[in-house]
Amino acid sequence: MFVANDTLAIGVLKALNERQIRVPEQIALISINDIPAAQFTIPSLSTVKIPSEVMGVQAVRELKDRIENNRTHILKIVVPYTIFFRGTTLQKDAENMESATQKHTHTV
């Protein structure tokens, strides 16, 4: 299951535990942000870290360029990310994700 952010994923993890759904044996869970609490949940939360500072700086640059140069075409911008595979994903899930991506991944 992919959850939009770590805070929501922690709530999902709690709800799954309350319903005795075993994570990651019955369902894998991964989210975005890599907040500090993600590594302290039980099991620890697998997460994707996307540098929000980089996205913010790039967004401001692009907006400024659009305004100053009256640019109307859309640009594709690739932002670096790191996947932290922790306890909410099985090893096979991590291996499948690592083979599907060329970006940085870490099994913790």
How do you describe this structure in short?
With 108 residues, the chain is an alpha/beta fold. The protein has helices spanning 6-18, 52-69, 91-100; strands at residues 30-32, 46-49, 82-85, 104-107. It contains 3 helices and 4 strands; from the N terminus they run αββαβαβ.
Q: Biggest sheet: strands, sense, closure?
A: 4 strands, mixed
Strand fraction band?
A: 5-15%
H/E series, N to C?
A: HEEHEHE
Inertia-based shape: elongated
Percent helix: 25-40%
Q: Which SSEs are present, and which pair or pack?
A:
Elements: H1 6-18, E1 30-32, E2 46-49, H2 52-69, E3 82-85, H3 91-100, E4 104-107
Parallel strand pairs: 1-2, 3-4
Antiparallel strand pairs: 2-3
Task: Please describe what this structure looks like.
This protein has 108 residues and is α/β, with parallel strands linked by helices. It has one domain. Helix content is 38%, strand content 14%. It has a four-stranded mixed beta sheet, with helices on both faces. The radius of gyration is 17 Å and the shape is elongated. The model has no long low-confidence stretch (mean pLDDT 87).
Keywords, separated by commas or semicolons:
3 helices; single chain; alpha/beta; 108 residues
